[in-house]
From TrEMBL:
Residues 365-596 form the Histidine kinase domain. It comes from Pseudoalteromonas citrea DSM 8771. The keyword Nucleotide-binding does not apply. The chain crosses the membrane at residues 7-29, 264-286. Its EC number is 2.7.13.3. One of its GO terms (molecular function) is phosphorelay sensor kinase activity. It catalyses: ATP + protein L-histidine = ADP + protein N-phospho-L-histidine. This is histidine kinase.
Length: 612
């Protein structure tokens, strides 16, 4: 009853604590959400202001009427963002004041821009409109009239007058305006003195031209020749004021949000700390009420879990519920210990049988591969011996001829060539097999060339992997050196080859095997792939468990991939995965996280001579 009541009390406290933490988290979430919404609205307001300013800059550069017409939608967008932001900060008087200042400065900016745009409309948006079009018309009339007179000096003065006009409009330098006035006065004087009869007409043209030009100059000066003159200066001042008030508003909003967050976080942390203290007190109270048996059972369970040692016992005394649990655990541990001992014995025997079978396949393949070069060597030796006996007999009989001796020498050279090549091939096979055998027997950590090791293992299976039925590709960097256990790699590769031959081969087509390796982010990735039968998707999750096989009736034990899994995870401290695409085939993927590697050019030269 005490234990039951204690558990009920603890559950109630945990439920209350969870409710309080959830409530506090909800308030914090709401505050953060409101802050994000406020920041988003302010960002939209900033963007609308930036678009207004950018539109002004475009208009000053391009002087396009459509750009000016686009200011009104942008201002309406600003007003919409202003109203939405105002709703969010309506309870903060200081921020409302700053927001109103921003709105006021934007309105001032809009008014100044309207004046600037009005001045531009008077100037004209192209060369045929407004003041600019009018004075250009009079300028062309003046040039036309001057060209009709046979007075070169007048025509030159008109051209100089136009050039001074264009220089000023292009460069906006005051001395060009002064120069223009001087040419105007010279032209007026020349007309009065040289053409007294037509002076009234010419002076009228000159006056219209000069009036239009001066009006145009006055308008562009009103707009501002530079960014710090005229309406342009007023626009820039408005922009700076907008930026200043916008910055103050941003800082005020951020500070207010920051202070609100700090306050809420403080209250949240205070509530969590208080709840934690209460829970700690309650747990201490429950711990004092519960018997030490619980702690002992927990300790035993922890030891069993960590060490997988089922020989540990609780050895509790008493007749209460907790003691009975301890007795039942002792009985369960005894049963599991006995069962594991039996399973370990059976598994060890089956694994040993699988290793022996794998070694037998390797030895059988090696013997079959060794038989060919030895047979050729023996045949060459026998043939050479027979020819030597024939020569010896002819020599003793005194009938030896030069032709026969020459033929013998040629055949001897051929036989010795075959003998030498096949003996070298035999020595190479024995060396490869010796390396595999040494790795199997002395499983120490060594530096080895991964490609050379893989090629050596495949050499032992050449009798089974005939070219007509199997294609083997090795895509491993030739200079990749691993510091690991070569025996483990040899065994893993042997089991993979056996699986591909027994389970993957389709009778109607050749089997393609690809072995590859690469280093990605200091992790060594090893792949063994084939395009055979593949693996049923139901078997993929349990493929590495012992005794999983589809060839049990054909002598399969289901231990090959289980041994591979143990070698990778326990010996090599890595990770192994099996994949089987829908289109067929299988891929064993090994990831080695803690395996040291280097790239050695010398070993790459040795690996160049190897082939599968």
């Amino acid at each position: 009853m005490q234990l039951r009541h204690s558990v009920l009390l603890f559950k109630s406290a945990a439920l209350i604590s969870t409710a309080v933490v959830c409530a506090v988290s909800w308030f914090l979430y709401c505050e953060i959400t409101n802050g994000i919404k406020l920041e988003r609205r302010f960002s939209e307001l900033e963007n609308s202001v930036s678009r207004l300013i950018s539109q002004k800059e475009r208009f000053i550069v391009e002087r396009d009427k459509h750009i000016a017409q686009g200011m009104e939608p942008l201002y309406l967008n600003f007003q919409d963002n202003f109203n939405q932001l105002l709703v969010l900060i309506i309870d903060e008087p200081e921020q409302v004041t700053q927001l109103a200042n921003v709105d006021e400065k934007v309105k001032e900016f809009k008014q100044v821009f309207a004046q600037f745009e009005q001045a531009q409309a008077q100037l004209g948006y192209n060369e045929n409109e407004g003041v600019y079009g009018e004075f250009r018309y009079h300028a062309h009339q003046l040039q036309s009239v001057a060209s009709k007179e046979a007075l070169n000096e007048l025509e030159i003065l008109v051209l100089e007058l136009r050039r001074a006009e264009k220089d000023y409009l292009l460069r906006l330098k005051p001395h060009y305006l002064t120069l223009h006035q001087q040419y105007f006065e010279k032209t007026t004087y020349l007309v009065k003195t040289a053409l007294p009869e037509q002076a009234a007409i010419y002076l009228q043209y000159l006056a219209k031209y000069q009036h239009g030009f001066l009006e145009y100059v006055a308008l562009i000066q009103q707009q501002g020749l530079t960014h710090n003159q005229g309406l342009r200066a007023a626009l820039n001042q408005s922009i700076e004021a907008i930026k200043t008030h916008r910055k103050i508003l941003n800082e005020g909003i951020l500070n207010a949000r920051h202070n609100n967050k700090l306050s809420l976080i403080f209250y949240d942390l205070s509530a969590i700390v208080l709840i934690s203290v209460l829970c700690l007190v309650l747990l201490n109270y429950l711990n004092n009420r519960v018997s030490n048996h619980i702690l002992k059972i927990n300790k035993v369970l922890q030891q069993v879990t960590d060490g997988e040692d089922f020989s540990i016992r609780t050895n509790l005394h008493g007749d209460d519920e907790i003691a009975q649990i301890g007795h039942h655990l002792d009985s369960l541990f005894l049963y599991i210990e006995t069962l594991l001992a039996r399973l370990s014995t059976a598994q060890a025997r089956l694994i040993e049988e699988a290793k022996i079978a794998s070694l037998g396949n390797m030895v059988s393949g090696f013997a079959h591969e060794l038989n060919t070069p030895l047979g050729v060597a023996i045949t060459s030796q026998s043939h050479l011996k027979e020819q030597v006996q024939v020569i010896k007999s002819d020599l003793e009989s005194g009938i030896l001829q030069k032709k026969a001796l020459t033929k013998l020498i040629c055949e001897a050279e051929s036989a010795l060539f075959l003998l030498e090549n096949n003996l070298l091939r035999t020595a190479s096979l024995i060396d490869d097999f010796k390396k595999v055998a040494v790795h199997q027997q002395y499983d120490d950590m060594n530096d080895f060339n991964l490609k050379t090791l893989v090629m050596g293992v495949f050499d032992c299976y050449q009798s089974e992997l005939v070219p007509e039925q199997y294609s083997v590709e090795c895509e491993i960097p030739e200079d990749l050196i691993l510091t690991s256990y070569p025996a483990a790699f040899s065994q893993i590769l042997s089991y993979c080859i056996n699986n591909s031959v027994k389970h993957g081969k389709i009778a109607s087509k050749p089997l393609n095997i690809v072995v590859s390796a690469m280093v990605v982010n200091d992790f060594v990735h090893f792949y063994f792939k084939d395009d055979g039968n593949g693996i049923d998707k139901e078997l993929i999750p349990v493929i590495f468990e012992p005794f999983i096989t589809t060839k049990r009736n054909d002598g399969g034990t289901g231990l090959g991939l289980s041994i591979v899994y143990n070698l990778v995870t326990q010996k090599l401290k890595g990770e192994v995965k099996m994949q089987s695409p829908a289109h067929g085939g299988a891929c064993l993927h090994i990831i080695l996280e803690n395996t040291a590697y280097t790239y050695d050019a010398d070993d790459a030269d040795d690996a160049d001579d190897a082939s599968v």
